[in-house]
Amino acid sequence: PFPRVFVTRRIVRDGSRYLGPYTDVKHLRKIMKTLRKIFPVRSCNYHLDEGVIKSGKIKLCLDYHIHRCNGPCQGLVSETEYNRMIRQVEKFLKGKTRELVQELRQKMEEESRALHFERAAQLRDQIHMIENYYFNAQKVVIGMGEIEDRDVVALATEGEDACAVVFKIRDAKLIGRQHFYLSGVEEKTEAEILTQFLQQYYLETDDYARQILLPVNLGESMPLLETWLSKQAGQKVALLVPRAGEKKKIVDLCQKNARYLLHELLLQKSKRQDYIHPAVKALQKDLHLPRPPLRIEAFDISNLQGKDAVASLVCFVNAHARKSEYRRFKIRSKDTPDDFAMMREVVYRRYHRLLEENKPLPDLILIDGGKGQLSSAKQVLEELGLEEQPVIGLAKRLEEVFLPGLSEPQNIPRRSAGLKLLQQIRDESHRFAISYHRKLRSKRTMQSPLDDIPGIGPIRKQQLLKTFGSLKKIREASLEELREKGKLPEKVARNLYQHFHPHSPTAPPEN
Predict the structure, then answer these.
(1) Regarding predicted confidence, which is higher, 510 or 434?
(2) Can you say how many angstroms the Cα of residue 249 is from the centroid of all Cα atoms in its chain?
(3) pLDDT for residue 227 is more than 90
(4) 249 vs 362: CA distance, rounded Å
(5) Which residues, other chains included, contact 234 with Cβ-Cβ below 8 Å and sequence gap of 6+?
(6) Which of 3, 143, 395, 431 could be joined to 370 by an S-S link, Cβ 3.0–4.6 Å?
(7) CA of 475: how far to CAs of 414, 419, 444, 468, in Å?
(8) Measured at the alpha carbon of residue 288, what is the angle toward residues 286 and 293, in degrees to the nearest 5?
(9) Residue 134: other Cβ atoms inside 10 A
(10) Tally of CB atoms within 10 A around 242
(11) Among residues 94, 91, 248, which one has the least CA distance to residue 176?
């Protein structure tokens, strides 16, 4: 007869009204603390029926004396009045603040007209506390121009893990955020995961919104899900996928939250020593490797018609870049375009050194290129006695993965986290090689003939160019002009003059 409001961890179909689930305990405690300040709901566990109340066996507790309870145990409040307050509590928890404040304000005016000023003052204080909680404490206001109740659902996935986030929007205000971690989703599409999540989520809640905003279309299951949700809610429920405007912005915000929370989960997992990133597990499965490729080293060649040829080595450990172990190579063996020979050189230099220094080898070597580059690398590894070393090639054109001894590329699913990891590593090795190649090319093109002359450093070079105006005029200057106008010592002036006039007679010595 006199319901309680309490927190539970499990649902029992005993006729009780359940709201939630709440995934943020801190937020839930704040709600319950505020609720008990606004509404005098009893906190005791007694079963209050008419016989118990009349017997007077239950004494008034401290809550009554500090105005946190109306004393239903002593019959000081009617069952009708108490249950009306419980309905107000439900509206408060559901975020129906406009409707609740309107109801309380109407009741306050009635009490005031009846000259019940103390009761009217209590209602006034209730209204102020509700407005302070929902209108001042609420930081996010959804500017959709409507007050339609909405739930916003978004999803982020990586490998076998996913995070679903639900924003609850009531009276155009974001009143709560819930997030749920999911696992074992690597073989499913985003639409399939969302469909199953919505069924599970709304099966365990009685709080339905008229609109549910989603990031993607659910396909054929969407109308069936709408029908099921409408039947569960007892009202029309629409699933919408906004493409623009304020609704799209709030869906994007929800999805950003999901990605952030999933990143936090993966970060916590990665701190465990036995943790293996889902992309690494997927790659092991895709390539049929004997052990997880925790350490992957990737090579790329960069040159311009054989000039300034360089190679890069990038290292990823457990799907994360380890930049302290990146390496750069200047190609020594070739100055003409020959990617195969260049690849043989850098692979030999890298793993010959690791063997000499007795350092561990990678679990997988990634070669940027097709069958030719892969064959070159495999040949060198066999010469070094590393026949069992796993090595693959990744061609840029069609993202084809090649294995040694197989003429056809491996059929790795495009959505595989393992393939995405390979692409990320390949792109990083390409970026690292290109940046080094550009640095060398820029250094070569910016180099001046003055840099090769003994006694002329950066400062003296700048002074000469400023004095004579150009390299051409320095070349045409006489020995005397270099000494006097250029203010160079005798020995430096002679070195400079002889550099530009190697076939001229030796300049006469100074008198």
Answers:
(1) 434
(2) 18
(3) yes
(4) 44
(5) none
(6) 395
(7) 61, 58, 20, 10
(8) 80
(9) 20
(10) 17
(11) 94
Q: Helices 25-38 and 117-131 sit at what angle, rounded to 10 degrees?
A: 160
Lowest mean pLDDT among 241-245, 249-253, 412-416: 412-416
* CA separation for the pair 296, 315 (Å, rounded): 6
Supply 260's token pair: 């952030």
The dihedrals phi and psi of 458, each to the nearest 5 degrees, come to -60, -40
Closest by CA to 433, choosing from 381, 369, 375, is: 369
Mean pLDDT of 412-434: 89
Specify which residues 183 forms β-bridges with: 161
CB half-sphere exposure, 427, CA atoms < 13 A: 8
pTM given for the model: 0.47
d(CA 495, CA 453): 7
CA distance 63 to 176: 29
pLDDT at 307: 65
Contact 178, 24 (CB under 8 A): yes
Residue 2 near residue 72, CB atoms below 8 Å: yes
Token representation of residue 227: 């029908």
Please report where in the chains the tokens 């970026």 appear, as a residue: 431
List b or e across 323-333, with b for residues whose CB sees 16 or more CB atoms inside 10 angstroms: eeebbbbebee
Mention every residue, 6+ apart, whose C-beta is less than 8 A from residue 66: none
Judge contact between 507 and 479, C-beta under 8 A: yes
CA 363/CA 317 separation, integer angstroms: 10
Cβ neighbour number for residue 73 with a 10 Å cutoff? 22
Q: What is the pLDDT of residues 331-352, one digit of tens each?
A: 887 666 788 888 999 999 999 9
Residue 244 CB coordination number (10 Å): 7
392 closest CA partner among 422, 348, 428: 422
Query: In sequence order, what are the beta bridge partners of 174?
Result: 169
- Tokens representing 271 are 């701190």
Rounded percentage of the chain residues whose pLDDT exceeds 70: 89
Question: Would you place residue 508 in the very low, low, confident or very high pLDDT band (cuts 50, 70, 90)?
Answer: very low
- 8 A C-beta contact, residue 181 and residue 161: yes
Distance CA 221, CA 226 (A): 9
Torsion sign, CA atoms 233, 239, 244, 248? positive
Q: What is the 3-state secondary structure (H, E, C) of 376-401?
A: HHHHHHHHCCCCCCCEEEEECCCCEE
Those residues with Cβ within 8 angstroms of residue 159's Cβ, 6 or more apart along the chain or in another chain: 186, 277, 278, 279, 281, 282, 417
SS3 category, 167: strand
**Three-state DSSP state, 294:** coil
Q: Are 203 and 243 in contact (CB under 8 A)?
A: no
Residue 204 contacts by C-beta under 8 Å, 6 or more apart in sequence?
A: 11, 21
Taking residue 477's Cβ as centre, other Cβ atoms within 10 Å add up to 20
Structure tokens at 273: 């020593």
Q: 157 pairs with which residues across the strands?
A: 162
Distance CA(404)–CA(191), nearest Å, equals: 37
